Amino acid sequence: MAIQTQTVEYKDGDVVLEGYFAWDDTNSDRRPGVLIAHAWAGRSEFEEGKAESLAELGYAGFALDLYGKGMRGSNAEENTALMQPLLDERMTLQRRMTLALEQIRKQEMVDASRVAAMGFCFGGLSVLDLARTGADLSGVASFHGLFNAPGNTANNRIIASVLVMHGWDDPMAKPDQVLTLADELTAMGADWQIHGYGNTMHAFTNPAANDPGFGTVYNERADRRSWQSLQLFLAEIF
């Protein structure tokens, strides 16, 4: 096995975006592609590592960019300044997710008919928004994502299968929001499943998360279980 990686530039108007693409070059066949949407700090080694892990599983991973080439946050204040404009303008967020979907389909190693998206924290909200637009893709998976609806998709039908993996003690997405999301997904005709992990907070997949006061704490068991659930989900939808 030889995992290859490259950066891929693409644009949203005048904004240059830069994704990170990973694949196994020992396989010459086209294979399913999986987008990875980043958390609030921007595309990082964490998401790039997930792209490489997916490549090891036989997929092509594309860690997308929602902020712009080189735009990264290093603390909560900077992260919020990058994320908030896209939370305020969800159509811009949805457009950038759609552009990333178009980019992964252009890669010669990818079977354009078999594409999914996954995301972490803010990225979890982002992939749910992509599904809410009615985008034609096989599935989306949200890890400790945010659930608030964008307000411009209520009458759409969701084509993608939806997997949500959620820490039940996440202060950023409380149980009543989980129920609201379930009602929303049902109303939009989605094939959905929600996995709730007990005694688990936000950012449970990130080994660097260790701020109980803020609500972000790594949980090895939930991390392992959610990755196993993702693999089963991808095997099913592809």
Walk across the major sheet and give the strand order: 1-2-4-3-5-6-7-8
Q: The biggest beta sheet, please?
A: 8 strands, mixed
Q: Identify the overall geometry.
A: globular
Mean pLDDT: 97
CATH superfamily: Alpha/Beta hydrolase fold, catalytic domain
**CATH hierarchy class name:** Alpha Beta
Number of strands: 10
CATH topology: Rossmann fold
Q: Roughly how many Å apart are the termini?
A: 22 Å
Rg value: 16 Å
Structural class: alpha/beta
Q: In which range does the helix fraction lie?
A: 25-40%
Q: Segments where pLDDT lies below 50 for 5+ residues?
A: none
How many helical elements?
6
Describe this entry's structure for a reader:
35% of the residues lie in helices and 27% in strands. Strands 1-2-4-3-5-6-7-8 form an 8-stranded mixed β-sheet, with helices on both faces. It has a two-stranded antiparallel sheet with strand order 9-10. The protein is α/β, with parallel strands linked by helices and 238 residues long. The two termini are 22 Å apart. α2 (76-88) crosses α3. It has one domain (3-237): Alpha/Beta hydrolase fold, catalytic domain (Rossmann fold, 3-Layer(aba) Sandwich), CATH 3.40.50. It has 6 helices and 10 strands, in the order βββαβααβαββαβββα.
